[in-house]
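Structural biology now treats backbone shape like a language. To illustrate, our science desk offers a sequence and the tokens encoding its fold:
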Amino acid sequence: MTQALQVTTKMKDGDQMKESNKEVIFDKLASVDLKKFARSEGLDTQLKRWIQVLSLIQAVLDDAEDKQNMRIAVKHWLDDLQDLAYDMDDVIDEFSTEACRRKLMEAHGSTSKVDEITRRLESMKEQIKILHLAETVAKRPNKNRDRLPSTSLVESYVYGRENDKEELLKLLLSNESSDDQVVVIPIVGMGGVGKTTLAQMVYNDDRVNEFFDSKAWACVSDDFDIVGVTKTILKAITRGGCDYEDLNMVQVKLSEALTRKRFLIVLDDVWNEKYEDWDILRRPFLVGSSGSKIIVTTRHHRVASVMSSTAGYSLKELTDDESLWLLARHALGRTNFDRHPNLEGIGRSIVRKCKNLPLAVKTLGGLLRARSTPDEWTDILNSEIWEIKEDQSDILPALRLSYYHLPAHLKPCFAYCSIFPKDYEFDKYELVLLWMAEGFLEESKASDLMEDTGDNYFKELLMRSFFQQSSSASSRFVMHDLINDLARYVAGDFCSRLTDDLEENIKCTILDKVRYTSFTSSMYGASQKFKTLQKAKHLRSFLPVSGKYDGDFYIAKKVITELLLELRYPRVLSFSGYSISDLPNSIGELIHLRYLNLSGTSLKVLPESLSNLCNLQTLRLRDCWGLINLPVGIRKLINLRHLENFNTSQLHEMPSGIDQLTSLQTLSKVVVSKNGGFRLNDLGNLSLLAGSLAILELQNVTNVQEARDANLKNKRDLDNIVLAWNSEYDGSLSKVLQQDLLEALRPHTNLTSLEIEFYKGDKFSSWVGDSSFTKLEEVSLRGCTHCKCLPSLGQLPALKDLSIQTMLEVKAVGTELCGKDCSWEFSFPLLESLTFDDMPEWEEWTCLSSAGENECHFPLLQKLCISRCPKLKSIPVLQLPSLSELKLQKCSVGIAKCLYNLTSLNNLDFRQIIGLASLEDAFMQFPSGLEDITLRECHQLKNLWGSSNTVNLVQLKSLVVSECSQLSSLEELAVLPMLKYLKIESCSALLSLPTLSGLNTLEISSCSALSCLPMDKLLLPQLRNLGIRHCQKLNLTPEIVIEDTSTSIESLEIVGCPCLNLRTMLGSVYSFASLRFLDIRDCDYDLDQLPTPSLERLSLCRCKNVSYLPSGLGRLRSLLLYSCSSPLLFPQGDFPPTLKFLDIEAGENLQLKPLSEWGLNRLTFLERFYIRGGYPGLESFSGSGDDGLALLPPTLRSVAIGDLRNLKSLSTFLRGLTALRYLHIFNCPELGSLPKESLRNPLQTLVINKCPLLEKRCLMDRGDYWPMIEDIPCVEIRSDGIKSGSMHFFSYHSD
């Protein structure tokens, strides 16, 4: 009964009710304050009766628990009991809150609530006789076991799969030819059989690592999200980020990354049976080298046959012996039963009951680990729960039994996780906070905090295999599909998930019983999902979980207001990630609230009523970039334990009273006020602070005693501290005061990260760099403009990352950086990253060794950046055997000559390097292992490395050269076999390019002297992406130049090249059979012939002579025409029937036919239509489509229309658009009305810009249209011009 019979966990568990009832409900009823309050209200007699009836109910719970699986009436009785327990807890919590406030409760009607609960309790007691529930006399075996130490590690043991592993490796490491362009190896088997485990075994095998150039792992799950899966693979292959949302761009980038590589990709847990989806997903995989493989794990042979022409590898259950070994390992910690021979026979029966499924055996083994007698094992084997028919439940009986035997305190915590969708990666820290808010955690009698208790609970569930660590992030965890099913089963009707399937949401649950719900965040879908919760009057958790979309989420203000009025009992409430700019005052009426997450919202001001939430434990405000205030009455949040306010750059003031919140453990940021607000010494009372703390505006501290009273040195749980003065502070306070202040702010030696910003003293305190900080791994000193020397950071034994920036008065760096008793030989032993930036006066760096040589070894340094240090001429010889990334900017070329032993260097970035004429001369030992080179603004660079035989960059894959004004030749590139990506921009002296036979992507821009590409027939036979921009003299002669190239090019962009005869280049003489994306801008040629066989996207901008579209565009999905002026009417002929996106921006002379003649209503795939201008005198779109129906097809989801200055009506234009979700109208000053039926559609975004008549009617709370549009999640009414509006449109809807 934790938190109301724990809240009987929750889910029909007798122990739960029995133990937690005593510890929670009875404790609450025994509260002195509550008793005093109850007497004053005349409720003490009824509360005593509650205790009596609960005691009677407790006595029969064991019997009810045993009978519930066989007798449906008993199960219903337990469900009703739990429902009552929740309501009891709500009332008791209300009593406790009001007792704490010392207020009367008449306004809440709690007396009537007590009467109702008393009646329900009596009814539950009467049903005991009817159901023949008996009081349990004999004590049941103790289901709890000693908790393992919190430092215990969970090991993974795999048995019985060595043969499977070797067989799969034979398939993986084979180079045998196949009819398929990419070899797919499916692993097929039932859930829990170990498909993923087997894939992991081969994926991490050393032979696989040696055989394949690249690997990637993607969990697909039942939502076959092509964009998401492709992005996951791209990130893994490139080991970088991916900001693209457009499938085309993601697939192009992935194709580039995989080209001519032998790769292994694992697609785990695939359910989708549609061949079309698989065909789209696999396109980037077709460019790999021979031997590339894809492993697919799936439960269905149908999926395997769709994805592969070969038979899948069928994975069977373990044998009895293998399962027995696995059980012994997890139950006994051994691989046999030699020490427990009396358990072996029972164990064999148990694994057979588990159907020899590894997951079930492992889970049950965790349960049996605490039991060592035959009776205990036999008791589990003979339990009735095994006999439940499988057609009554999708959950394996073994897993169900493992839950049944969980300690009572873990059951509600696990059941709560049923709100997480399958494959959802959750954070341990957040989950513990949610458990705490729901009352599942209790502070122990000792010194453990509730958070520590939750951490231990989490570790127990992890140890028992209910949780698994995510393979993508060590801080995140997942539940296996079967475990997730188990959680949903035990949670029953009290938990729901809202998905994008609204019909499923409506029928999936009994809403009046729901206490916990999650919903998958989507860009606009929240409003409809929230409306399904109107009957969930007793909701306790309302939690968004991140879906596939990474951007902002939108929801109407009205929906938020109505939702807060409906919810009366929430403990957990989150609007994280939603573009909410205003929070209703009614938030202050949610007196039960413990957890409130407003992170990533658009809030500027928090309502003062928020300070009424005296039970609030967690307030999350991270990434609220616009937030400017916290409630003045924040001191009233006496139970607040976590205030997350980092990344709140506009929060420049914080109120006083935070020092009274003595339970605070998390306080991400404080802003010291000059007067009246937060004072530095307020930190002194907050003895429990832990984690990260940023102290800003330290220039406002004028008394050093305030810093001493902050008592940072005794806050042992703070591991990350930022000490910051204002960047614009003029340093008017004395330097001595600043030094004393920094000295007084000495933190505890447990610190792992330290940042000091804009400090105005002229020297650092002695503690900065003191060797007693043995855990300090990261140090950043920035903007300390008055300091003339650096602190002794070399003494820090654990330092890994050092960044020194904007130290304007430092002229020399020497032994002071090592420390008094430390030489350079013994300094920085673990340093991995070193940055010096913006040190304009720095001239000399010396590292005198014990032998008197100016030399220093950094054995583990991986990243070195020296930037904006123009006077630095002398540095020591640096031995850098582990360096992989080197960045030099605005400094002398002589620095590179001092870098030695660069055997690991693969990434080089030079910018504004003074005196750099050739890379060959930059190094004494040239780094031959380079893979990526970037050269920018090196104006003295005349060649890359010349014809030197000492430079052999056979591994170079990417080269970027920008604004190198004297560079005239790139002849060195002709002998680079691995070069795939070449970008040349603003190199005004460059005359030609060499033959580049292996190039995949070529981008050339603003090279004013470049007149022709090489005439070799084998110019770019593997080129897939070609972009040429603003090369005024460039031409292509003779035609043979691109003959072989054209067959491979998939993406072509030509911008502002007046000498490039595109009519000849793109004419029928070239096949361009692979071309899918064509973008041409600023072209004066007649483009009457275009390469069309495979074209999917065509964009023409400012092309003066486009009068009609060529034929044969049968695959075209996206057509974009911007300012393409022509004296002829447009369009001529029909649009391609496959068209999905159509954007028309009329030029000055482009005349558009009447829209009724376009035949758009026949385009059954069209989703977006954007039209700008083209009808200067039009007042209304008249007529209908060529078939007498609507002008536009009903499939349209996005419409934008603008620059029609005389337009007065859109009724005909918008007729029949029942699927419309996005409507943007701009620069139509005469338009005064919209068809009401369009506003009644489930619009998700409405943008009106520079339409004054419409703007007036759409004003919030005042315009007559407002009642019709207030439910739209995203409404933007503005008068700031059209540019930003149209870009907003394309940012969300480009192909």
Remarks:
- The longest helix spans residues 72-101.
- The mean pLDDT is 80.
- The two ends are 53 Å apart (CA to CA).
- The chain is about 25% helix and 15% strand.
